[in-house]
Design goal:
- This protein has 291 residues and is of the alpha/beta class.
- It has 2 domains: 180 residues, HUPs (Rossmann fold); 93 residues, Pantoate--beta-alanine Ligase, Chain: A,domain 2, CATH 3.30.1300.10.
- Helices cover 39% and strands 19% of the residues.
- It has 10 helices and 9 strands.
- Strands 1-4-3-2-5-6 form a 6-stranded parallel sheet, sandwiched between helices. A 3-stranded antiparallel sheet has the order 7-8-9.
- Helix 7 packs across helix 8 and helix 9 packs antiparallel against helix 10.
- The longest helix is centred in the C-terminal third of the chain and has 20 residues.
- The protein is globular.
- The model has no long low-confidence stretch (mean pLDDT 96).
- It binds adenosine monophosphate (AMP).
- Adenosine monophosphate binds next to helix 2 and strand 5.
């Protein structure tokens, strides 16, 4: 009989900025490079793809788990965001992450002399996720800046599932922290195509089935493109999805993949990006596809 023993690497778990900084200083002293994977926890294979990418490119991989209240425009959404710290730690351990930082809100934002980092995100903050979730991207750049100031990574890893977020981070790195290299990691999907998300845990069985419509709609648009114009496709699929019970489209947009500006005419292959945000029951899901 064989007993399968999973190899667990040593994962350092830090709740304090000071201890984390001490650990990282000792690594930097011996010229180790640091790769950072910021997350809000409730970890899954999408997050692990970032950890694996970070593992390939960095000597020391640091994940962070913090459900950042400042990037939620809706208190109920924040309150019901899934939390599974123990499972997260186990998953990071089996995926050879070196350290995880799990700060409290107080330790990040609570100091008397704390000043929020702000930057002008231009139109990026006013379209799509920026328009639908006011303040969201300001909250994102504030926490990412804080994490950069604590961790000083050489590399940072973000998922293309949050396409607009990646553009916001790119803008931030151009403005400040230009020494940090950004890696854009592809979307990881379930075998049936649903983009993996922490929020999928909030779906019941029927909603999980309905959620498949996001990816199917992206694929339909990719198939139908060129045969019809951009707006007709958006309208047709919005109408079709809105007819489904418990499904409400927040937006379907077809944009230039470089600028996220609405397309009036198709671009060359690889430059057309369809982005979708849909409420399935009370759960808001997003996805996108480049074609
Ligand atoms: P979150 O915990 O949702 O804030 O996500 C943390 C990071 O994981 C972000 O850079 C996300 O874009 C990335 N991520 C989440 N889901 C996926 C996925 N299915 N595929 C690739 N990256 C993902």
């Amino acid at each position: 009989m064989y007993i399968c023993v999973q190899k667990l690497e040593l994962l350092e778990v830090f709740y304090s900025k000071k201890k984390l900084a001490g650990f990282l200083d000792s690594q930097k002293e011996i010229e180790k490079t640091i790769g950072l994977v910021p997350t809000m926890g409730a970890l899954h294979e999408g997050h692990m793809s970032l950890i694996k990418e970070a593992r390939e490119h960095s000597d020391i991989v640091v994940a962070t788990i913090f459900v950042n209240p400042k990037q939620f425009d809706n208190k109920e959404d924040f309150d019901k965001y899934p939390v599974s710290i123990e499972d997260d730690i186990r998953m990071l351990e089996t995926n050879e992450c070196d350290a995880v930082f799990i700060p409290s809100e107080e330790s990040l934002y609570g100091a008397d002399d704390y000043r929020a980092f702000e930057m002008d995100l231009g139109y990026l903050d006013k379209i799509l996720e920026g328009a639908k979730r006011p303040g969201h991207f300001n909250g994102v750049v504030e926490i990412v800046h804080l994490l950069f100031e604590i961790i000083h990574p050489d590399f940072v890893f973000f998922g293309m599932k949050d396409y607009q977020q990646v553009m916001v981070i790119e803008k931030m790195l151009n403005y400040i922290h230009s020494d940090i290299l950004l890696f854009r990691c592809p979307i990881v999907r379930e075998s049936d195509g649903l983009a993996i998300s922490s929020r999928n845990r909030q779906l019941n069985r029927t909603e999980r089935q309905l959620a498949l419509n996001l990816h199917l709609t992206l694929l339909d648009i990719k198939d139908e493109y060129k045969k019809t114009n951009v707006q007709t496709l958006i309208d047709k699929h919005t109408e079709r999805l809105n007819k489904l019970k418990n499904v409400v489209v927040d937006y379907i947009e077809i944009a230039d993949s470089d600028t996220l500006q609405h397309l009036n005419e198709w671009k060359s292959a690889g430059k057309n990006l369809v982005l979708i945000a849909v409420f399935v029951g009370k759960v808001r899901l997003i996805d996108n596809l480049l074609f």
